[in-house]
Amino acid sequence: MSVKKRIAFVISTILVINVFSQEKATIQINYAKETGDMKPVWAWFGYDEPNYTYMKDGKKLLSEIAALSPTPVHVRAHNLLTTGDGTPALKWGSTNAYTEDANGNPVYNWTITDSIFDTYIKRGMKPLAQIGFMPEALSSHPQPYKHDWQPGQPYSKIFTGWAYPPKDYKKWGTLVYEWVKHCVNRYGKKEVESWYWELWNEPNGGNGYWKGTVQEYCKLYDYTSDAVKRALPTARIGGPHVTGPSGSGAAQFLKTFLQHCINDTNAVTGKTGAPLDFIAFHAKGAPRIVNGHVRMGISNQLRDISSGFEIVASFKEWKDLPIVIGESDPEGCAACGMATNPENAYRNGTMYSSYTAAAFARKYLLADHFKVNLLGAVSWSFEFEDQPWFYGFRDLATNGVDKPVLNVFRMFGVMGGKRVAVNSDQMVPLINIRDSGVRRDATDVGAIAAKSNQSATAMIWNYHDDDTTGIPATIVLQCTGLPGKQVTLQQYRIDAAHSNSYEVWKKMGSPQKPTAEQIAQLEKAGQLEQTGTSKETIKNGSLQLNMQLPRQGIVFIKMTW
User: Fold this and answer.
1) What sequence ranges are listed for the domain Glycosyl hydrolases family 39 N-terminal catalytic (predicted)?
2) Cis status of the peptide bond prior to 133, with omega within 30 of 0
């Protein structure tokens, strides 16, 4: 073989290898084929530590969250009735809403709960008002009460006297009545009618957030719902916020509660059943370390959602009732940083953002599959005040600097109107990703798309459960059903080089005391970055775009006419 032929052979071999080593995907979006409403199910957030709400970085982040959503954002927080002086700590918060005098008479103090709700209302947000936890003076097992848990310690340490049933259910009912009545007086009937009230958190299990039985929870729900409705008959109340309905224990708890609200004797009224305006359960993934890297467990989360939807759909009385996935996350402990829990190292970078995009798209599809009324899915992620920079908490921002994951919600905030048909030859089918995740060599390259009167949008991701470096995907995006002859096309990205404060921080040398100039640079890097704008010609309603998308990256397009 001559030298020229040998060179030609080597070049052709390299080209062949390159072609076969690339991820390729063809995504077809038909904007003329509507599949359902683009409901803002993503515009729900929550956190354990309610006292962070009115602190410096808490107020800043809430303002940003409110600004990114075209509809009011709902916010859920734990510990709104927990006894204490309001000093925040990880996995802890307090309001001192209820104490008793020396004679055992109730003393109500709404100062801190008002500070929390005032912060929401000022920003046009709506409380998903959690009625819990048990005040020390009402707890049937009050001591010990305040915990001093820290990351790395046994999680069970947090479950103290606040997790027990009341020693007096009537006093509990009166507390709830007084709280709701106070809110009506402070914010007005119309405003409070737009909220959702809920009882407790993750009561299944018996050794965690609820130290009582399912029967005791149902009794507490009877007293709670009766009190809420007495204070405001048009208020909306729901539950039970069990976690993990793909497991038999949580599934049975959920079924027992739903059946109770239909058929059981009400502990307060003596009548049959209890009012129920929405149903809530929680869904969590399960990341772990495999061969030195993080492997996500998106299938665990999707199975929880699937099972919860299936249970609700099985009740003819409740199948059309709104559903709130009260916590919907890659795993269970927001305050467990990656230093103590290395499986949580996904949280600072693009793994968290690409996971969020891929997971939310499937929530819409699962709701379609089971024909249920999904109202919202709470991302249990907020911020942790005065903690180390990029410590690996499950949060949306660190020290006032937005993480890449928050930019996914900025993208969702632009999507409205109707969802439209999407087909991708490399998007893992719904049932497959629910049952098995994304574990094969090929990544999950998919999209969710929507249209309104004068715009069309699409969010496209390149996701894999394994947080490893892979080759970019070459994507052919074929859009049909577009009106007019020309559109203005805007593109945005989240990847290692765009909308990514974490990568910028690492390039700075990972400073724990960044300068004012560095902080300004990080704040800018934390925003959603536009990577292009152009005028595109539409031919017979069609437009084709070609793009490269890195692994764990997201590209967002908006077309206006």
Assistant:
1) 28-527
2) yes
